[in-house]
From TrEMBL:
Residues 228-281 are annotated as: Disordered. This is tRNA (Adenosine(37)-N6)-threonylcarbamoyltransferase complex dimerization subunit type 1 TsaB. Its EC number is 2.3.1.234. It holds the Pfam family TsaD. It is an enzyme of class 2 (transferase). It comes from the Bacteria. Residues 24-242 form the Gcp-like domain.
Length: 281
């Protein structure tokens, strides 16, 4: 199965092409340019370098969120456009799950953290567990990614508390663009040993998105293949613009309510001053 994968959910933009268990090409960019500037040129370069016929693709995988609102929209729009033009299905892969996949086979708990601003992170908790032994495999062992706590958004203090309270005595490996932001905080908060992944595997990779997409298909997950027109990013929380709009609407509603209360109070006072129609003789 040949899959084109796109990840523009964070600061890193990436494009990858896999065929079954082979990574044919990957292009990753982590520099001071917007995804709208880099994503399509990267895709075009990958296509050119491996003589890729887009019609030969079986599906398009995309990091569906959470992450940067603008980045997710760019990645989603690119994947949807390709899917609709080529009549190919899309496979949505949770961003945080794909980040955890970078550390395949690692022991302990894996905790990706992406800076979500306002002292919050997009995160999840994972572990790689051995699959059932295969008598024909000899000493070979394969692992599957176990989701201990599905991706969510929370303050870094809550994340550390959750990790500290996990029952098994395992170390934690952190990765993601939230690590340099919250590293000092983690040193204060963590009560169990932890490590931070190195630069070679601590950011989003489109290849990991492709690998998980392949895995979803092999597992026969229901609804894994979606029509391009039906795809939508998973933001996990409202955007800053939406929060601002809601705050303005709430403030406007309060002002309107206060104005109505003042009007009613004035009317009550006016009624109290009006003659009652009774005259004492």
């Amino acid at each position: 199965m040949k899959i084109l994968a796109i990840d523009s959910s964070g600061l890193v933009a990436g494009v990858a092409v896999t065929e079954d268990d082979t990574l044919l090409a990957e292009y990753t960019m982590n520099y001071k340019k917007t995804h709208s500037q880099t994503l399509l040129p990267m895709l075009d370069e990958v296509k050119r370098m491996i003589d890729l016929e887009l019609s030969s693709l079986d599906a398009i995988a995309v990091a569906a969120g959470p992450g940067s609102f603008t980045g997710l929209r760019i990645g989603s729009a690119t994947a949807k456009g390709l899917g609709l033009a080529l009549n190919k299905p899309l496979i949505s892969v949770p961003t945080v799950d794909a980040l955890a996949m970078n550390l395949y086979g690692a022991g302990g708990y894996i905790c990706p953290i992406m800076d979500a601003r306002r002292n919050q992170v997009y995160t999840g908790i994972y572990a790689f567990v051995p699959e059932k032994e295969n008598a024909d495999a000899g000493m070979e062992q394969t692992c599957r990614l176990e989701v201990i706590k599905a991706q969510y958004v929370a303050p870094i203090e809550e994340v550390a508390r959750t990790l500290n309270d996990l029952p098994e005595e395992k170390d934690v490996i952190f990765l993601g663009d939230g690590v340099p932001v919250f590293h000092d905080k983690l040193r204060e908060l963590m009560k169990r040993p932890f490590a931070c992944a190195p630069a070679s595997c601590n950011r989003q990779r489109a290849a990991a998105v492709a690998v998980l997409a392949q895995q979803y298909v092999r597992e026969g997950r229901a609804g894994v293949m979606e029509n391009a027109a039906d795809h939508a990013p998973e933001y996990l929380r409202p955007s800053q613009a939406e929060r601002t709009r809601r705050e303005k609407e709430a403030a406007s509603g309060k002002q309107e309510m206060k104005g109505q209360e003042r009007q009613e109070q004035t009317e009550r006072e006016q009624r109290g001053q009006e003659p009652s129609g009774h005259v004492d003789l």
